[in-house]
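Before relying on records like the one below, remember that each one covers exactly one chain. Contacts with other chains, cofactors or solvent are not represented anywhere in the record.
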Amino acid sequence: MVDAARVLCGLIAEPSLKDLGPDLDPKSELQGATAGAKRNRPSYELVETGGPAHDRWFRVEVRHQGVLLGEGRGKSKRAAERAAAVQALAQPPRAEIEELQP
């Protein structure tokens, strides 16, 4: 019974989720894009905060295997992480960059 319900929910929800496109969750998309044989996940590091207590901002860097992929700034840590993931996804894949270098 549970399996049938799971299949039914998938049939109902999956098309709607696909319609949302890649903007659904940039952090999840980045995790999928960086997933290799070792399944290393990107890491997010808070590198700076500022502003008065009522109007804080956060700056976060995202790295994968020690390589800086992007940075983001936002009014919350989560927003800064999402902005960093969006910037990382906008960059060409590292393999393409390495091919261009002499």
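Residues 91 and 97 are 9 Å apart (CA to CA).
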